[in-house]
Structures are given as C-alpha cells and as structure tokens.
C-alpha cells in the first residue's frame, strides 16, 4: 500500500475514485506513486496485490479536493478523479451507501447548477436505461438548475464492467452485470490532453527514433520532474524526453554522440523526415515555449563527457538505442582494430558498436556517480520474453529498483526501469564506493568479452545480441 503521509499529521482522509485509462496497465501504479511523491500528496491506496489492473477504477484516500487536483495535474494515465459518496455490488447497495454519506454531499444540493451522468468503462449503457437509473437518485433532492455543459457540480455514476472477451461485441454483454458501481462528484480531469499537445506527428522537429508522447510523459513523472530540478538525457536524439521534463518545470540538458540528431542538420534522414532540418531540438523547444528551461546540448560520448564532480543531477531520463531503428555507438576502436597510420590528430575519432549489456552497466555507473541521493534513473531496456529473468536488470548496491514496467510486443518487450539512488546507502560505506565501481566495471568487461565470442565469460542476458535476435525474429542465435 502506498502511503506518503507523515505519521505526525492526524489529517482525516476521505475516499476518492480514480478512473484510469486502460492503456499501459503495468505503468499505472508506478506513475500514481511517483506523482503522489512529487506533488507531496499523502496518498493511501490498496496494496499492489489487491489492485485489479483490468479495472479502470481504483478507490484511494486523500485529504481533500486539493490533493486530487494535484494528482490530476500530473497523471497521464488518470482520466478523471471523483469524491466518492458511495459504492456497492448493486444499485440497492449503492443507494444505501450514498444516503449514509449525506453530510458530505448535502452542501451541494441548494442552488448549485448540476449534471447527472453515467460512465461505464468497457461497456455501453443503453440509452433507455439512463432515465430510469438517474431517477433512482431522487432522494438527492437537487434543487438547482440542470446544466449539462458547465455545471457547478457534476455527479457521476460509474459502472465497473470486466473487459469484454476477444471477438465479442459490446452488445453481447449483459447489461447491469458490473463488478461494482460507484457514485461521486467529479473533481478534475487527468492529463490525457498532453498526449495531443506533444504528439510527435505535430512536433516541429522529430525523427524515426522519437518517443511517443504518452510514454515520454510517463517517464517524466517516473523521474519526478518538477520546478527547480535538473534532468539529463545522455542519448537525447530528437529530444522527446527533454520536452516533457521541461514542461513539468525541470531544467534540462542532453547529449548525443551524433550532434546532427540534436541540431536537426539535414542529411540522409532529411529524405525520410521532411522536418529533419527545421532547427532541431532548440526549435521544437521554442515552439512549446520551453526554451528557457533548456540549458544546453552536448555532442559527446556518455562514457567520456568528463564530469568534474558528481551528485549534481535530480534525474537521468533516457531511451538508449538498442539497434532496431538506430544502433548504439561509442568512441574507440572496435575490438582487434588497429590505428590507421594515416590517422591525423585533427581527424574525427573512430567509433565502435556499443553492446547493450555494456551500455546498461555504464548507464547505471553514470547514474550512481551523477545523481543526488533520492535522484532517479529512468530508462528503457528491451528484453526477449522467452529468455527474460529478473536478474537481467543491472543492479548496483547504491541504487534501489523502484519499478519495472513492461510494454509487451509479443516475442519481445521493452521495460521501463526506474531506479533511485539510495538516500542513506543502506549500509553501503562511502569508502567502498571505488570498490563498487570497480566491481561494476569488471562485470562490464565480462559482457564485452562475451560479445567478442567468449560466451562462458558471462551468463547471456535477454538483451544481449538484441539487434541480431530482433532481425532473426527471435530464433536461437548461434554464438
């Protein structure tokens, strides 16, 4: 159970109903907990094992409407939030519960304009039943005028139906066979409109690796973006992660080994994407009126940026390349290669392929060094479903796993990994930091040896050779 309240605060909590979008179900609880944390809302919700993600409804407890609006101001998976006056398995049970809570809703009866509505996720309520259902609430004795468009009070009945089975039409459902029915007053909407605002297709600058808006918003929430914070994307690309962190108030900057991606320099990509030369990330940030929160963009290898000190960032939020649309690269000669004798000091430095296990390890090391205690690393890790094990996610004694949310594509999935730098290090002595980093580097060296044809050097993780597996349709790869 998520409970962000302070024990010393004896504030009575009231029931509220959150109506969620039915997309990205495994992202729901991590986002809700994150926005409660970043908005300082003492949310109390059911424990994970009692949360039915197939239901669009969840009853939580908050201090009041202000807390509900704070959650609604950030949640992209939140459709709307209601002060809950009653619930039941049937309408008879609901009416008994609502009448018992008269002291909470009676103040809205005199003079306020109102609207009564019925919502039913996964179901279509027959129009002929609307009037009969709403008449059942006659005991409310609403005396104000009806205003369906902009009422002072919008009272809503929510019927919670199970998802319809595959290949079964909506009409095949038996009406009124819901799991629960709720009644309450609408307090606010969520942030579903942000998906349209930051739609990649409408963006001034985008590329073939640009992250879809809904996912970018979720990542910004997971990273606890907010006013005065400093967020960094080490694989900035076309800037999808930066815009949403900046939207929520963070100062942002990014880096990428290929500066053309960030600048929007016209080149081969210009053919595929007509907007590739329209000013890059800076121009898109200006179109969103976020340019004042963009610090800078660096053309750099994330492992060789040359940070002079650590513990300065509040969040690292990124979607590393894993070889499907763009391959990961880093500075340096490929294994076994030699420096050409004609290489001049002014030449561009050589680059080599960047194995995904090594990239993930480097990202974790970088995060541990750069993040403040309590700062978060949020990144995507592709995995093969038949091979995945929980131990595939890189670990560090100084980092805590907050969430591992899956977006399933059949044979493979991409996992949104959220890790937090421990505040008290939980027994990890500061003097041992160098030893921890050395151990991580030894593990990274093992992965690199495995990539060079020594499979016994390290256990194969599901994201090893991911590009090869992907384009071979995940048939076994001979090593």
Compose a concise summary of this entry:
With 479 residues, the chain is of the alpha/beta class.
Oligomer: single chain
Give the beta-strand count. Answer: 15
Average pLDDT metric: 84
H/E element order: EHEHEHHEHEEHHEHEHHHEEEEHEEEHH
Task: Kindly report the spatial arrangement of strands forming the biggest sheet.
Answer: 9-8-7-10-13-15-14
Sheet/helix structural class: alpha/beta
Distance between the termini: 45 Å
Tell me about this structure.
The protein is an alpha/beta fold and 479 residues long. The chain is 25% helix and 23% strand. The chain has helices at 28-38, 65-72, 91-100, 102-105, 127-135, 193-197, 213-222, 240-247, 259-263, 269-272, 280-287, 356-370, 433-451, 466-471, and strands spanning 14-20, 57-62, 78-88, 114-119, 153-160, 180-189, 230-233, 251-256, 294-299, 313-318, 329-331, 351-353, 371-384, 399-408, 412-421. The strands form three sheets. The protein has a seven-stranded mixed β-sheet with strand order 9-8-7-10-13-15-14. A six-stranded mixed β-sheet has the order 2-1-3-6-5-4. A hairpin with a 3-residue loop joins strand 14 (399-408) and strand 15. Helix 7 (213-222) crosses helix 8 and helix 12 (356-370) packs antiparallel against helix 13 (433-451). It is elongated, with a radius of gyration of 26 Å. Mean pLDDT is 84; it is low at 267-276.
């Amino acid at each position: 159970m998520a409970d962000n309240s302070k024990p010393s605060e004896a504030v009575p909590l009231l029931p509220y109903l959150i109506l969620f979008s039915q997309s990205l179900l495994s992202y729901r609880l991590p986002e809700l907990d994150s926005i409660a944390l970043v908005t300082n809302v003492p949310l109390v919700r059911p424990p994970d094992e009692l949360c039915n993600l197939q239901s669009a409804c969840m009853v939580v407890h908050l201090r009041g409407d202000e807390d509900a609006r704070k959650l609604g101001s950030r949640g992209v998976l939140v459709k709307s939030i209601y002060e809950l006056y009653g619930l039941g398995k049937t309408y008879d049970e609901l009416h008994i519960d609502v009448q018992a809570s008269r002291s909470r809703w009676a103040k809205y009866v005199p003079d306020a304009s109102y609207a009564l509505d019925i919502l039913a996720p996964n179901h279509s309520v027959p129009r002929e039943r609307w009037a009969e259902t709403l008449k059942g609430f006659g005991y409310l004795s609403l005396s104000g005028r009806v205003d369906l468009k902009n009422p002072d009070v919008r009272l809503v009945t929510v019927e919670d139906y199970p998802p319809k089975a595959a290949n079964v039409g909506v009409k095949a459902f038996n009406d009124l066979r819901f799991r629960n029915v709720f009644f309450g007053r609408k307090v606010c909407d969520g942030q579903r409109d942000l998906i349209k605002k930051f739609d990649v297709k409408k963006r001034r600058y985008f590329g073939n690796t640009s992250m879809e808006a809904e996912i970018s918003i979720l990542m910004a929430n997971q990273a606890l973006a907010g006013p005065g914070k400093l967020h960094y994307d080490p694989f900035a690309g076309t800037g999808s992660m930066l815009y949403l962190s900046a939207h929520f108030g963070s100062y942002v900057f990014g880096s990428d080994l290929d500066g053309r991606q960030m600048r929007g320099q016209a080149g081969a990509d210009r053919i595929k994407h007509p907007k590739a030369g329209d000013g890059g990330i800076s121009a898109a940030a200006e179109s969103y009126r976020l340019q004042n929160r963009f610090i800078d963009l660096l053309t750099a290898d994330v492992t060789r940026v040359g940070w002079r000190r650590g513990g300065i960032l509040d969040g690292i939020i990124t979607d590393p390349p894993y070889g499907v649309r763009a391959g990961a690269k880093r500075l340096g000669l490929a294994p076994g290669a030699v420096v050409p004798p004609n290489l001049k000091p002014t030449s561009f430095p050589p680059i080599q392929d960047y194995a995904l296990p090594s990239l993930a390890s480097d990202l974790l090391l970088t995060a541990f060094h750069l993040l403040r205690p309590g700062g978060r690393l949020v990144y995507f890790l592709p995995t093969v479903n038949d091979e995945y094990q929980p131990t595939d996610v890189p670990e560090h004694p100084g980092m805590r796993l907050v969430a591992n949310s899956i977006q399933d594509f059949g044979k493979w999935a991409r996992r949104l990994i959220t890790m937090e730098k421990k505040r008290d290090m939980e027994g990890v002595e500061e003097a041992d930091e160098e030893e921890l980093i050395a151990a991580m580097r030894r593990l990274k060296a093992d992965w690199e040896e495995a990539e060079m044809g020594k499979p016994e050097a390290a256990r194969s993780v599901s994201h090893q050779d991911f590009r090869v597996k992907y384009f071979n349709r995940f048939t076994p790869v001979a090593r």
